[in-house]
Amino acid sequence: MAAVTLTNVVKRFGTFEVVHGADIDIADGEFVVFVGPSGCGKSTLLRMIAGLEDISGGKIAIGGKVMNDVEAADRGIAMVFQSYALYPHMTVEQNLSFGLRMNGNPKADTERRVKRAAEILCIDELMQRRPKQLSGGQRQRVAIGRAIVREPQVFLFDEPLSNLDAELRVQMRVEIARLHKELGVTMVYVTHDQTEAMTLADRIVVLKAGNVEQIGAPLDLYDDPANRFVAGFIGSPKMNFIAAKVVETSNSAAIVELVNHGGARLRKPLCEPFPATGAEVVLGVRPEHFFEAGEGGCDIPVKADVAEHLGSVSYVYADAGSEELIIEREAARQRASGDHFTVSIKAERSLLFDKTGARIR
Ligand code: ATP
């Protein structure tokens, strides 16, 4: 069993606290991705799991064993870095086998493990090359191979695809997903790329300024974010936020008026506690959740500013009074820059947040 459990984990650099009591349970065999903006503490968390960074408070356990004082080499983990960290003077084969040879692993077993890793990653033909004779994608494969040969209980990935071009990133992302299926071991993966997080993760941990904002399956976070930060971070293009005001609450609903759209109103069914009448709130609407005018929603006239046509979908960046909205349209409903049109939002396809960013249910 290689579950990873973080209990009230705190990290301070000097007096500066960068992780404020993280509680994260990662199940055996699960693929968990840490995401969040730059500086939120995701690499620090990963490095604490790896044992490359001391923890200032709390507890980290791997496979049920507390690891706080266990050396990195004895934690049963292998880490893959963005920078590959290959030995330039060694061949691929030597890079793969080096750690095992240094540990005195039996020769036949080392050969078996190297061969298996090479097969899994399709790098059999590169074994006699040196890192400088490899492409970026091939180097990253070798770096992953070095982790595989260790046969770890847990793989840790720190932004492993950041140095690759867009096409290779997609290709390697699929390979990592396949690797997880094939090996079935626990993987913890750090990225600031929410597409990587959405596509790879069984569950995503969203971090902000050293705090865990929400943990959940990708589509649960997408459909049911706990707060405005998670709503804005998960999803590309981003959720639209539209300023509104509560004008009335009655019969399990709040009537909200859009502040910048000529008094347009929406009836939003809610549970108690209701927000106060007069409260400033924000409506969150995903780009794909705008409807055609006249379909029974709350109408907003807009003017297309920039239209991006990607083939299967189009995105229109539209001016709506003092707000800019990103609207996804089917290709058949493309709009050109400068077009005036009306979109509509519906209560069941919008989320409501209070002034602090907390979700109003
Ligand atoms: P990025 O996406 O930019 O890599 P991150 O979310 O991985 O960011 P961390 O590298 O974990 O963020 O850093 C979290 C905070 O801790 C940042 O404010 C960073 O400046 C600080 N920090 C990281 N390492 C050290 C260190 N060795 N000494 C002091 N502060 C540090």
UniProtKB/TrEMBL annotation:
Q: Does the keyword Transferase apply?
A: no
Which superkingdom is the protein from? Bacteria
Asked if the keyword Nucleotide-binding belongs to this entry, the reply reads: yes
Q: Which InterPro entries match?
A: AAA+_ATPase, ABC_transporter-like_ATP-bd, ABC_transporter-like_CS, ABC_transpr_MalK-like, ABC_transpr_MalK/UgpC-like, Mo/tungstate-bd_C_term_dom, NA-bd_OB-fold, OB_MalK-like
An example molecular function term from Gene Ontology annotations: ATP binding
- Limits of the ABC transporter domain: 4-234
The UniProt keyword set, sorted, is: ATP-binding, Cell inner membrane, Cell membrane, Membrane, Nucleotide-binding, Transport
Q: Which family does it belong to?
A: Belongs to the ABC transporter superfamily.
The record ties this protein, via PANTHER family, to: MALTODEXTRIN IMPORT ATP-BINDING PROTEIN MSMX (PTHR43875), MALTOSE_MALTODEXTRIN IMPORT ATP-BINDING PROTEIN MALK (PTHR43875:SF3)
Provide the protein name: Lactose/L-arabinose transport system ATP-binding protein
